[in-house]
Specification:
The complex is a heterodimer of chains A (about 280) and B (about 375). Chain A is an alpha/beta fold and about 280 residues long. Chain A is built from 10 helices and 8 strands. In chain A, strands 2-1-3-4-6-5-8-7 form an 8-stranded mixed sheet, with helices on both faces. Chain A is globular and about 70 Å long. Chain B is an alpha/beta fold and about 375 residues long. Chain B is built from 13 helices and 16 strands. In chain B, the strands form 3 sheets. In chain B, strands 2, 3, 4, 5, 6, 7, 8 and 14 form an 8-stranded mixed sheet that branches. A 5-stranded mixed sheet of chain B has the order 11-13-12-15-16, sandwiched between helices. In chain B, helix 1 packs across helix 2, helix 1 packs parallel to helix 6 and helix 3 packs parallel to helix 4. Classes of the chains: A alpha/beta (about 280), B alpha/beta (about 375). Chains A and B meet through strand 2, helix 3, helix 5 and helix 10 of A and helix 3, helix 4 and strand 10 of B.
């Protein structure tokens, strides 16, 4: 793990000219995810100028404002399309797409599956808090069945998306899940995701007490973290569990690690070939 | 004196000319999604760009993604474009607004087809004129250009890129199916025969740079992402540093500036071609392929002894008001033929304010407006 202290993070990576405080509620896990991301980038020694954080809309979308990288706060659900254009235009850049669960899985679902299929060299982070937070607590595609939200006062009937399975099916190169309770593990995953070629996706489970917990039997933010602690289980151990014991557990860890080259790599290799042929006078 | 180099002549489709123009203007990124009648632009780009140094072609999953990718590419300093038709244009509106707000240069070609909805695929129409102006939400200025023949497709595409870069704004090139699917002989300009404008990049050290600072032209310099100038780009109303703000004075400052940077350069942006308008009694105001029918009608009217003229709009928005007002000092009748229910005649009536009689000719059946139709109305006076 990286050994950067809180003070160093503030001085090196947060924006001094941004009007703080931030918009996040007490108990929110988003700040932990952002801290993880910063520490991973620091540990890998990636220069700030080479990092582009492309964010969607919502609570997670606002994170881009606070960090001193190149930051683009896009339209709702479209972060991956902007990120694709940036990565293809300048493959040297480390492009990180920060999205919420509603952002990435609902309105941005098409962009997500195609970014994975295309295997574009972007690191996607889905901050999954199971709810639409900033708009006031409506159901998202990740809201668990049976839970209560502003738009599902009688309990969610829709099935909830399994982000990992979705990304795996769509062809993502690297897929992992972590939680903000298991910070060290999340940091390790994050570093791997940043280093892998092609499309990598990290789903970070982060609690929203204000909009989700309050309505769903979690009395305090602490209860939500306890829930993460008791539900999450390393995928290796999860696979050994008998079927009947899996229902309430959530596997975390690395699910896919294919190591295929990214789309931009293939594209530029082909282009170089064309240029070589042309230089030789061929067609 | 060296003999001027002969220009290369090619026999090209309107859509092909758009590609030639874009490449001459320095376009190195195309992201798009297929839709007729604009598809050839994408197909030719798919062949050309991957063989060019630094050229990137991407077929995206939809029009929304195309716009996102184009804006992303532009942020890295590239000249980027996309092309679409009616229904795709509707999908692009969301990110078009983003490009306006984040002041991202880009060119969007819309080859109009009959609508509303999926409408009349691959039949000519001019039904997206007001969508180009007001399709995205909020108050914003926009530059909309048009072309009436294949040579103009090339020239106006170069102009579109130049304006996009000069004013840090998306520029829409509205074509109709007749123009984009007509094949004509055109001349490719030689190097140096046309202007290529690229965005101003900051010259100050990165720590002094404010991404949305006031400048004389109202257009702040724009560094490529990854070049050492780290700043925040957002579709939210932002302050000079690029950070979201809701303070009224900062909101007003931004809105004023993005309007002013276009307003104060009307003379540069509003392009028209005036044909026999100096003394005309009847003036036809037309754009796109209809302007070609109109030109013939005007010539025929003249040979019939009627003082007719044509104001051909090359810029649709901001509407060339000055040039129209000049004609209003002597013209008694304005004729506005278009392939829609009257989208541009609204602008003409707004500027006319009752000075002259305004006669409209409207076709929405997927057929072109013929010279004889226009001539008939001109002769009625």
């Amino acid at each position: 793990m990286s050994n950067i202290t809180g003070n160093e993070i503030i001085h090196q990576y947060l924006r001094h000219n941004k009007k703080f405080p931030h918009v996040l509620c007490a108990g929110c896990g988003h700040g932990i995810v952002l801290g993880t991301l910063i520490r991973s980038i620091h540990a890998l020694g990636i220069p700030k100028d080479d990092v582009v954080v492309v964010a969607g809309i919502g609570c997670s979308g606002r994170l881009a404002v606070y960090v001193d990288f190149n930051t683009v706060h896009t339209t709702h659900g479209r972060a991956l399309s902007f990120a694709t254009g940036i990565k293809m235009s300048n493959p040297k850049l480390h492009v990180i797409a920060l999205m919420g669960d509603g952002d990435a899985l609902s309105i941005g679902g098409n962009h997500l599956i195609h970014a994975a299929r295309r295997n574009i060299g972007v690191t996607a982070m889905i901050l999954n808090n199971n709810i639409y937070g900033m708009t006031g607590g409506q159901s998202s595609p990740a809201t668990p069945e049976g839970s209560t939200t502003m738009t599902n006062p009688y309990g969610q009937l829709d099935h909830s998306f399994d982000t990992v399975e979705l990304a795996r099916g769509a062809g993502a190169n690297y897929v992992a899940r972590g939680t903000v309770f298991h910070v060290n593990r999340l940091e390790k995953i994050m570093m791997e995701a940043l280093e892998r070629p092609g499309f990598s996706l990290v789903e970070a489970i982060t609690p929203c007490h204000t909009q989700f917990g309050r309505k769903n039997k979690y009395k305090s933010p602490v209860d939500m973290y306890k829930w993460l602690k008791s539900t999450a289980i390393p995928v290796e151990r999860y696979n050994e569990l008998p079927e009947n014991k899996r229902a309430d557990r959530m596997p975390i860890g690395v699910f896919v690690d294919r190591g295929k080259p990214g789309y931009e790599e293939l594209y530029y290799a082909r282009q170089e070939n064309f240029l070589k042929q042309a230089a030789k006078g061929g067609k | 004196m060296p003999r001027p180099k002969k220009r290369t002549e090619i026999f090209a489709l309107g859509n092909e000319a758009v590609v030639e123009g874009a490449l001459l203007a320095g376009c190195t990124f195309f992201g798009g999604y297929p839709i007729t009648p604009s598809s050839e632009i994408m197909e030719i780009m798919a062949t050309r760009l991957p063989r060019m140094e630094d050229g990137v072609f991407m077929q995206m999953e939809d029009e929304i993604a195309s716009m996102g990718a184009v804006i992303g590419a532009s942020l890295t300093g590239r000249k980027a474009m996309t092309a679409t038709s009616g229904p795709g244009f509707s999908l692009m509106q969301e990110n078009l607004g983003y490009a306006v707000m984040a002041e991202t240069p880009m060119v969007l070609v819309n080859v109009m087809r009959g609508g509303p909805s999926t409408g009349l695929p691959t039949s000519p129409a001019q039904g997206d004129v007001q969508q180009a102006r007001w399709g995205t939400h909020g108050d914003h200025p926009i530059i909309v250009l048009s072309a009436s023949n294949v040579q103009e497709c090339l020239d106006m595409t170069i102009t579109a890129f130049n304006m996009a870069e000069k004013y840090r704004t998306p520029v829409i090139l509205l074509l109709d199916e007749v123009t984009s699917h007509t094949r004509e002989k055109i001349e490719l300009p030689n190097e140096g025969e046309y202007e290529v404008f690229s965005r101003t990049v900051p010259s100050m050290p990165p720590e002094w740079y404010k991404p949305y600072e006031e400048t004389v032209r109202g257009v702040p310099p724009m560094p490529p992402i990854g070049s050492g100038y780290r700043f925040h780009v957002t579709g939210l109303t932002h302050d000079r540093n690029g950070f979201p703000t809701q303070r009224p004075e900062e909101v007003v400052e931004l809105m004023d500036r993005i309007h002013r940077k276009i307003d104060q350069f009307f003379y540069d942006i509003q392009l028209v071609e005036e044909i026999m308008t100096e003394d005309c009694d009847v003036c036809v105001i037309a754009y796109g392929s209809v302007a070609r029918s109109a030109e013939l009608a005007v010539q025929q009217a003249r040979s019939n002894g009627v003082k007719a003229g044509l104001l051909k709009l090359m810029t649709l928005f901001p509407y060339p008001r000055r040039q129209t007002e000049k004609i209003l000092s002597h013209a008694k009748t304005l004729v506005v033929p278009e392939m829609n229910m009257g989208q541009m005649s609204r602008e003409v009536k707004r500027v006319n304010m009752g000075h002259a009689a305004v006669r409209t000719i409207n076709r929405v059946d997927g057929q072109i407006v013929t010279p004889s139709e226009i001539l008939k109305v001109i002769m009625q006076g």
